[in-house]
Known about the structure:
The complex is a heterodimer of chains A (319) and B (655). By secondary structure, chain A is of the alpha+beta class. Chain A is built from seven helices and 17 strands. Chain A has helices at 2-12, 39-57, 61-85, 206-213, 235-239, 269-285, 304-316; strands at 26-27, 34-37, 89-92, 98-99, 103-111, 118-125, 132-136, 141-149, 154-157, 161-165, 172-178, 183-187, 217-223, 245-250, 256-260, 289-293, 297-301. Chain A has a five-stranded antiparallel sheet. A four-stranded antiparallel sheet of chain A has the order 1-3-5-8, with no helix packed on it. In chain A, strands 4-12-9 form a three-stranded mixed sheet. Chain A is elongated. Chain B is extended and about 115 Å long. In chain B, the strands form four sheets. In chain B, strands 7-10-4-1-15-14 form a six-stranded antiparallel sheet. In chain B, strands 2, 3, 6, 13, 16 and 17 form a six-stranded antiparallel sheet that branches. A three-stranded antiparallel sheet of chain B has the order 5-9-8, with no helix packed on it. Chain B contains 22 helices and 17 strands. Classes of the chains: A alpha+beta (319), B alpha+beta (655). Chains A and B meet through helix 2, helix 3, strand 6 and strand 7 of A and helix 5, helix 6, helix 7 and helix 18 of B.
Amino acid sequence: MFQLTKFYSSLSRFLRTAKSDTKGQLKASSRSIYILPSRFGIMYAVLIISMLVGSINYANNLGFLLTFFLAATGIIAIIHTWLNVLGLEFEIHKPEPVFAGKFLKVQVIIKNPTDKIRGNIQISLHKSSQVLLVNLLPGESKSIYLNQQTVNRGYMTLPKVLVESYFPLGLFCAWLYLPVYHKALIYPKPEKCLLPAYLIHVEGDSETASDINGHNDFHSHRNYQKTDAASHIDWKVLARGKGMYSKQFNNNIHQNFMFSLDMFDGCSLEQAISRLSFLIIRAEKQGEFYGLLLDEEIPLSRGTQHYNQCLKALAVYKQ
Amino acid sequence: MSLAIENKPLSNMQIYFLIGILFFSVVPHFFNFPWFISLFFVVSLIFRITFISTTKKPLPKWILFISIILAFVTVAIPGNAIGTGFGVSLLIVMLALKTLELRTIRDAYVFLFLNTFLLITLFLYNQEIYLWFYVWLIIFLILGFIYSLNNQLKSDNISFAGKSVLKIGLQSLPLLIIFFIVFPRLSGPLWAFKHETRSAVTGISDTVTPGSISQLSQSSDIAFRVKFSDNAQLPATQQRYWRGPVLAETDGYVWRKDNLTINSAPTLSNSDEIISYQLIMEPNNQNWIFALEHPVSFSSDLSLSSSFSLQHKEKITKRQTFEISSLVTNILEEENLYQINQSLFVPDIVTPRLENLVDTLNENSQSKDAYIKQVLNFFNQNEFVYTLSPPLMETNPIDEFLFDYRQGFCEHYATSFVILMRMADIPARLVVGYHGGEWNPTGEHLIVRQSDAHAWAEVWLDNIGWRRIDPTSAVAPERILTSINNAPGSEGAPVTFTLTDQSFLTDFIQQAGWMVDTLNLNWHRWIVRFSDKKQKQLFDFAGLSGFTQYTIIILSVFICLIITGLLIWFLRFKSFSSTDKSKIYWHKFLDKLILKSVQVSALLGPVQISQIARDALPDKKSDIENIVNLYIKIRYQKITDKNDLDTFKQCVKRF
């Protein structure tokens, strides 16, 4: 069994994939396109062979004429199918991180730089059942999102993107693989849990923090800073076009959390990580200050950047 | 990986289209099969359209079961064993049932493939050019449908799908031609199935009664065509007698052929007079092949009777071609006593006034030759009318014609002439066939129609043999020089002849007629009857006579590869963007500048090149500026306007 897997993986190294140019664009070159008859192509071949046998038997020249016409059309169809994929340009963007169990959205931009229309291009991630159909006018480019189911946290190697076309007659399939060089970051799946009763209270900065950044009572506006939580932005002011301001609250019962794995003693590592993930999401939503203590400490802070930093640290922990 | 649309359900519109295609594919078969197969087919389609188009639910199993049983019963009714007809009718009813099961695009593919197979069976029954165009039209509809399934970009735009499929069709033509010419043809079938066709056609038969030929003459159907070999001269109209059966036995009313046919091997006296030609017979359900008098060599499936009539082994039920050579001069024949005796028999129809006439004519003549002349004079100098609608003569046609009515067609003249000869002890017999024929200058062949059917006489002269005498020429010499108008007039109305001065319209119609006829003939010669022999001829003509068939096939595979390669190159070039194409013409422009000894380099930008070129060629300043500006517009401003590229191309070409 092991031998076989090894064999397949060594075989797949020979699979030709599209090569990217210096700008990171992939181009469907003639060397990277495969072409084979589809199921209907094989049926078509059987049809032509039986028509040929009939024509030979009855020495029927009109039969020959029809048979050869269909055969020639089949050959021309190969060319058209091949040309339908040839010269297309692709860009695959690094997908945004998602939580495990959710769908990863892989953005593919497909460009038709030629003067030819491109009908029914099927795009899918390798071995995925979701297939998207794209039609392109001359010079047109389109952006599509391919969904990839995620399971585990950490960095995920994305499958190759499969680009196929059966255009114009469905008798032949021309396809090519687009390599995906990006690795997708998968955050741990959050698991609901109660905030443990004992928490590490960090007193250090609390004076300034509780005075100015307190939560409950609205105090004043200040210019938006990157570390401010999205929920603190005064959207009403922003909608009036007066600029981006964050609300300042007076909050005296404000808390600072420093999360760590020690909080969940009885749990497995994965479960603990999942719970920490949940707590971080909650803390960010409530605009609280939080930090994370794993191998290295991430100091107390808040805001999208901090939030992502914490989740990423959780995602790659002991991977 | 699979076709993403495979399991998509078909729309009602698509289902109607598929049913329509099936209907039109089967219509020509209605004439080839018993009526109940057509009935089953039509009823199934109507059932499909009325009952199922409204609901998407699959059909209950029991309905399918009953219809399958019904289908088999329908096919089994004719009772013929396994044969072509059985297979085709089975295919028809199966396809009719398949319409009940049309749901997804996969079904559509299977259905259309089977339908295509059904189309090819049409050619077993009919191989005319119009059927070919009909079938090709349906094939294009099928391809267009498949194309529209695979292109949702403009799937609602029918003319777009049509245009694209037409392009694909045109691109496949060169390959089709090579395949057709090069594919090796077998001389016999792989296996034999009984395959019969029914046809009801007219033509000259073995017996002649008064009126039988004039009736035939009212049909403008083509009897046969003649293509003379390149070095042969078209014989004069007076010599174009196409010989059919010789009728010597008579009771005075019906003329029959003698039953004794001996295959004789003729001896050739002078080969200069030999004319060789191809005779393309239309089906006539008879064995007779109407060769030019006198046939001397012919294809092996023909046989020559002792009275120089050619016969085919089997009845002609489809268009067939024969290679024949004829000697136009008389042939010295050996005396055949049996034939001569038979040609002296006078049936029991002699009336006193007939006997009187023979006596009078005989008294004035010293020799047999003189008597023949007297009889012809008798026709010429009396008030005889040459008519397509002679009155009915039933009791004694010879006597009534000669004395009472004096209106008749060629068979009346020929039969009376033969009787008058026999009564004077000159052996004489009736020959039927065709005379003349219309020359088609477009196709350079002769068209002989049923209206050219003719009857003439032959008399036996000692030391000379059988000699042709055409009494019609004594009455209506125009008949022998031109063909007749085959519109029947009132009873006894004289025949009108085709005259040469014509209006523009009739001239145009005639020209068009010739074109169609030529097309038909060449279709038959080069497509329908294309055989291993023709193939060899063609290879010899192309100078490939030294090559074996395998060499030729390998050679043609290479040609096919080259054609496909060129096509790929062409299509790829066509699909380049305007920017890419403009680069190509820009380099052509630079080449032209260098040819004009302007020192430019491709490394320089267009503005610099423009500067250098304008300095070097001040007289072409405006041209250069125009080209450079267009190039900058297309290449750098990325304005993809087709017209710009075209004008740029033109400017560079003109430069």
